[in-house]
Structure formats: structure tokens, C-alpha cells
Specification:
Order of helices and strands: EHHEEHEHEEEHEH
Helix content: 25-40%
Distance between the termini: 25 Å
Structural class: alpha/beta
Number of helices: 6
Number of strands: 8
Strand order of the largest sheet: 3-2-1-4-5-8
Largest sheet: 6 strands, parallel
Radius of gyration: 16 Å
Length: 199
């Protein structure tokens, strides 16, 4: 099987073919817990994720829902907690792959890489939460494994972050910086509209 080099940019018009997968990262109920995490950067997150899924479900590409189950006591992401449930906008349908992870990267401690290769998938379109954490980890790890990667900027979200100097970085600033880093190194950055309009 010929795989796309990670150095090549994913062409959006190839995105929904059978060698591509939409990878949705940690779009779970806990995302909306502003009291615990602060308000995230993207009020339109659910709408954009819904658009992507609607588009993807009309094509031949695969859909992978990644969820995080934390082992930390008290975490709202622990299995059985309401916060660990998928948000309505990202609810898996029968036949769509669900991957459960316990680390930042969906490739650690799971069979995701094996499953993608078995299905001939060479290209990943990634959306989800949080951009600077699990989304970045997924994109970088995928790039290292030689997948072509697109990150859908307006279908991702970031949270406020405490800086090393004690100053809090706004969620919007964390989002812009995270996307800039990803775009400079391992992924093409696109909008939902750019992805959807190709089909």
C-alpha cells in the first residue's frame, strides 16, 4: 500500500475518500464545565463539529471518535461520570469507530494506528478539544507516524492556561498560538467551510 508522506500537505478534495478519516478528539460533556476549566475559546464548536460529521457521513471516509477516560480521582473525565459522555454534537453512530484513551495521545495504549493502517487510511482530518493539548498531541503523533494531517481550526477549542509567570493566558490566545505551532510544523490548518465546500 502506498502511503502519503507526512511531509506532503493533505489535499482537501481527497479528504473524504476511503483513505481518509475524520478524527474527533475528546468532544465530551466535560468540555462545557466552565467552572472547572474556564470558558473555552469556541462558542460555535458544536455547530462546526455537526457540520463536519454531516459532511463526512455523506462520503466514503472513516469516522473515529476518540474519548478520554481519566484515571485521576475526581476527574470529570473518569469513566461513569457524566462529563465523560460524548456531547450530542459528536455522538457516534453505529459502525463509527470509538477509541478510548487514558493518555493525551490517542495512539498511546490503543490500537488506533493498527486500525488505521488495516483500513488503508493515510490521511487524517482532526477536530476537537483541547487544541494545545490532546489535539496537538494527536496531530504531532500522526505526523510522526507518516499520516497526512489537517486540523480544522474552527472545529477545535482551547481553554485558558496559567503561564509560567503566573499570568493567565486567554483561551483565544492559547488557540491562536497552538494553531500557529501546528501549522508551522506538522499539519495544514483549515476551516470547516474549506473542508465542507470541497464536496
Amino acid at each position: 500500500m502506498v502511503r502519503q508522506s507526512s511531509n506532503a500537505r493533505l489535499r482537501l478534495y481527497d479528504a473524504r475518500d476511503d483513505a481518509a478519516a475524520l478524527l474527533l478528539i475528546d468532544i465530551q460533556q466535560a468540555v462545557d464545565d466552565a467552572e472547572l476549566y474556564g470558558a473555552h475559546s469556541n462558542p460555535a464548536l458544536d455547530e462546526r463539529v455537526h457540520e463536519l460529521l454531516t459532511c463526512w457521513r455523506g462520503g466514503n471516509g472513516h469516522i473515529v471518535h476518540v474519548r478520554h477516560f481519566s484515571h485521576k480521582p475526581g476527574s470529570s473525565y473518569r469513566s461513569g461520570h457524566a462529563g465523560a459522555e460524548f456531547k450530542r454534537s459528536a455522538m457516534p453512530r453505529p459502525g463509527e469507530r470509538v477509541v478510548t484513551k487514558h493518555a493525551e495521545s490517542p495512539f498511546i495504549g490503543t490500537d488506533l494506528d493498527i486500525w488505521l493502517r488495516r483500513h488503508g487510511i493515510a490521511r487524517l482530518v482532526i477536530a476537537g478539544v483541547a487544541t494545545g493539548h490532546a489535539v496537538t498531541m494527536a496531530a504531532r503523533h500522526a505526523h510522526c507516524l507518516d499520516f497526512g494531517v489537517v486540523v480544522v481550526a474552527d472545529a477545535c477549542a482551547s481553554f485558558p492556561l496559567a503561564g509560567v509567570d503566573g499570568e493567565t493566558l486567554a483561551a483565544e490566545d492559547v488557540q491562536r498560538f497552538s494553531l500557529a505551532l501546528l501549522g508551522s510544523h506538522c499539519a495544514r490548518i483549515a476551516s470547516t467551510q474549506e473542508v465542507v465546500q470541497q464536496f
